Amino acid sequence: xxxxxxxxxxxxxxxxxxxxxxxxxxxxxxxxxxxxxxxxxxxxxxxxxxxxxxxxxxxxxxxxxxxxxxxxxxxxxxxxxxxxxxxxxxxxxxxxxxxxxxxxxxxxxxxxxxxxxxxxxxxxxxxxxxxxxxxxxxxxxxxxxxxxxxxxxxxxxxxxxxxxxxxxxxxxxxxxxxxxxxxxxxxxxxxxxxxxxxxxxxxxxxxxxxxxxxxxxxxxxxxxxxxxxxxxxxxxxxxxxxxxxxxxxxxxxxxxxxxxxxxxxxxxxxxxxxxxxxxxxxxxxxxxxxxxxxxxxxxxxxxxxxxxxxxxxxxxxxxxxxxxxxxxxxxxxxxxxxxxxxxxxxxxxxxxxxxxxxxxxxxxxxxxxxxxxxxxxxxxxxxxxxxxxxxxxxxxxxxxxxxxxxxxxxxxxxxxxxxxxxxxxxxxxxxxxxxxxxxxxxxxxxxxxxxxxxxxxxxxxxxxxxx
Length: 467
Prior knowledge:
Layout: H1 3-22, H2 27-42, H3 44-58, H4 63-81, E1 88-93, E2 98-104, E3 107-111, H5 119-130, E4 134-138, H6 144-161, E5 168-170, H7 177-186, E6 189-192, H8 196-203, E7 209-211, E8 217-221, H9 227-239, E9 249-255, H10 259-268, E10 271-273, H11 276-286, H12 301-307, H13 311-314, E11 320-324, E12 342-348, H14 351-364, E13 371-374, H15 378-387, E14 393-395, H16 399-402, E15 437-443, H17 453-464
Helix pairs in contact: 1-7, 2-4, 2-5, 2-6, 3-4, 3-6, 4-5, 9-10
């Protein structure tokens, strides 16, 4: 048995023993576990320590936004879980004779990214515990120290409530592809967030898996929008945590007469539109050898400009760097995901053209995730929802904050967004606690009801006959 197999086998054995204990918990006891894990990251001093550690070790994002993210995403998740039934009978449908019983999935492998090394593990741990599961976190190597400290905090809270530490564990340092893949193989369920390489590995590991699609969000601003409000929302979304979120806008499509006032509103708030030469220099920094490099990832716009050799732009202290784009695909890398406060700007003749632009962007990257819309025309939202390959249409909101659930919308709080078959995923929801449950159904007999042929085929026969 090689080292990775042995190490993972020991972790999983301990997790299974702890999970058998948790299976005996009632709902009240489960909800204590959830509260303990939530308070482990939400207590202000611990939250700040985790945020500072995340930025120091990964070099990605900024501390204040990570503090806000750790707090809001966890608080929102706990709100969603409050009163939710995840033990015993969780639903009864007397007319169908069906009773639903929640069951644990077992040991969960939680693959988490360097962009959110505190908030994402916490979200997955809490959801897993809600289902009476054990969870083993497989963090990115850069995010290991933050995940390790988070789990120390969770174990401290477990001591207060008398729960076994082995319900929440971490792959030991140094995390390797071999150990992560072995954990995927030995666990009962994989939930993978982060690089598409990890998501593909999860999908092919032989264990049931949920993975997320690639982010590359486009936003549309039409002529009916409130440009001041739209610019504020785009700024808030695109600058949050230096645009590390998969839900940050990467392209903005400006429709017809919306272009001039929207660009003006963005400039007033600190966006800088680069010229052609400056765009070329920025491209050389971000895509020096084809794939997106880490040089700009999670950095401020001013730092990105400085690294790109644009001191005149950096001196302006920009909040966002904008570049004009009119094409798509690998030869036009600004049409893809940038993981930084860099925004490609497209111009559309009309709304139909805007949809075509977004469709072509997503044909290259980002299909299934979501699209933003700044508009007062309800028909435009419906058109996007019925015609584009997206699981979410985010209307008049700060996209990166709204997509994963917010206190002013009805989406579940989550840091893992399913992108449906468009994005290579088997689900299109915001991942939530129900994805961490098996559900057993009791079926009892009900009054028989057999439809007649006329009920089923009446309209068909009337139109086409009975031949």
